[in-house]
Write a structure and sequence with these properties.
Shape: globular
Radius of gyration: 23 Å
Structural class: mainly alpha
Number of helices: 21
Helix content: 55-70%
Distance between the termini: 38 Å
Order of helices and strands: HHHHHHHHHHHHHHHHHHHHH
């Protein structure tokens, strides 16, 4: 049995054990990387650790550390309250605000994980506060990032268009951008309908004052009673229906201005907001590493307000860090062995262009769910050159199909974006959220490549 096939079978075993025995998949993956790397690939420790995602480790630790401090001192509560005012109390608009925000960030040049790292903690805090599905909010953030990810001035767009030009293939920057935008917008719309969006619209509006009270509700003008508002200790201008609560209770010890208008700004919160702005400016304006910047800002805040930050280190998503780093270390061993190249070359050698095209889309989706989206596109586009050169399949449609297939799967909890969203979820919900992302990611991997192939590749065949 070839080393490549053995490495794939071991990965399947890791998934089965993690699913049936509730063992952290990252720990299993570290053990698998050690066993396969040593016994099958003859790698030493340095070779095995070559795949360890040190940059992602720092991003996960740094961002969750910084936002743990923001939660501890009430900054995220203030941001949630401000978001309610921004959309005039329409909670249903918040997922779309997050979608548009991450899309705008990536479209103007932010690396997709950096945009998600900035937006996801705020989005998930809002989801918790207003009983919005974490799956809906998290996936809206990720799909928003991918919606803007292929603009002509974006990182992904520039890289893919550069590869196309280098390989001498016909390309269209506008087609690539619009294809990704429309695909992610359609998926986001479907998610909004399927995962509670209609119920959010039915809630109507909440007043800004409700964000600072313990769950009192309002009726939107002309709307029915808000079914998502529950009984609370405060009063409001609306009428409580006694239905399911929206989880808007004030945090214990949260400061307010005494008027029911929600949390007010304190020196610690102002400093934290400035830190968040500094994170955005450093990452987008100066291309600094998001993880190192977040850790540095968190340390400054911890030094100035140690009481607010004492428990923040314990709230870093350590189980998620172990999970993601272990799996990606094993993927690094697969790359060292040549498993990914082996699979891609095998597909590229198929004599049926349409079949080769759909298989390449699936390889891009499956591998990208665990590894770099741009990295896999950089490998697959050159592999597609031989049958694209035959002229039977349109290059523009094929490249767009590969781009969509390799990026929409970033909702997987093993991808960088999915890991950041998972890390932003509350600890009590993280295991359930992980399973939801696993199922949803699997559906995306199974369905989207075929749809992209059918819509973008098949019409250009012949």
């Amino acid at each position: 049995m070839s080393p490549e096939l053995i490495s794939i079978l071991v990965l399947v075993v890791v998934f089965v054990i993690a699913t049936t025995r509730s063992v952290n998949m990252g720990a299993l993956a570290f053990a698998a990387a050690f066993g396969v790397g040593t016994l099958v690939a003859d790698l030493d420790a340095d070779g095995i650790f070559a795949g360890f995602p040190g940059d992602l480790f720092v991003v996960l630790v740094g961002v969750t550390y910084l936002f743990a401090i923001a939660r501890a001192n009430g900054t995220t509560d203030w941001l949630v309250h401000a978001a309610v005012r921004l959309v005039r109390g329409r909670v249903a608009l918040i997922p779309w605000v997050m979608f548009a925000l991450t899309g705008a960030l990536t479209a103007i040049g932010a690396v997709s994980p950096a945009a998600v790292a900035i937006v996801a903690p705020i989005a998930l805090s809002f989801a918790t506060r207003y009983a919005i599905s974490p799956l809906l909010m998290g996936t809206m953030v990720v799909h928003g990032a991918q919606a803007g990810g292929f603009s002509p001035i974006s990182i992904y767009g520039s890289i893919v268009n550069g590869i196309v030009e280098r390989e001498g293939l016909p390309g269209s920057e506008v087609t690539l951008f619009l294809t990704s935008l429309v695909a992610n917008l359609v998926i986001a719309g479907a998610l909004f309908v399927l995962f509670g969006g209609r119920k959010l619209w039915a809630r109507g509006s909440v007043t800004p004052e409700d964000a600072g009270e313990a769950g009192s509700g309002t009726k939107a003008p002309g709307a029915g009673a808000d079914p998502g508002i529950g009984k609370g200790s405060g009063t409001s201008k609306g009428t409580s229906t006694g239905a399911a609560p929206t989880a808007v209770a004030v945090r214990p010890g949260q400061d307010t201005d005494g008027t029911g208008a929600g949390p007010h700004l304190t020196p610690a919160r102002i400093a934290t907001l400035l830190a968040l702005v500094a994170l955005v400016v450093a990452v987008l304006g100066f291309d600094l590493d998001a993880g190192l910047t977040a850790v540095s800002l968190a340390v400054v805040l911890s030094t100035a307000w140690p009481d607010d930050s004492r428990r923040a280190v314990g709230e870093i998503a350590w189980s998620t860090v172990l999970l993601i780093c272990g799996v990606l270390t094993y993927v690094g061993v697969l790359e060292e062995i040549g498993t990914i190249t082996w699979a891609g070359e095998g597909v590229g050698g198929i004599g049926v262009p349409l079949l080769a095209a759909v298989l390449l889309c699936y390889i891009g989706a499956i591998v990208s769910a665990f590894a770099s989206s741009v990295g896999i596109m950089g490998a697959l586009i050159p592999l597609a050159v031989p049958f694209l050169a035959q002229g039977e399949i349109g290059a523009v449609g094929m490249v767009a199909a590969l781009a969509v297939s390799a990026t929409v799967v970033d909702v997987s909890p093993f991808s960088t974006n999915g890991a950041l969203v998972l890390a932003a979820a509350p600890e009590a919900e993280r295991e359930r959220f992980f399973r939801q992302l696993m199922v949803y990611g699997g559906i995306v991997v199974a369905a989207v490549p075929a749809l992209a192939w059918l819509v973008l590749v098949v019409p250009g065949f012949g």
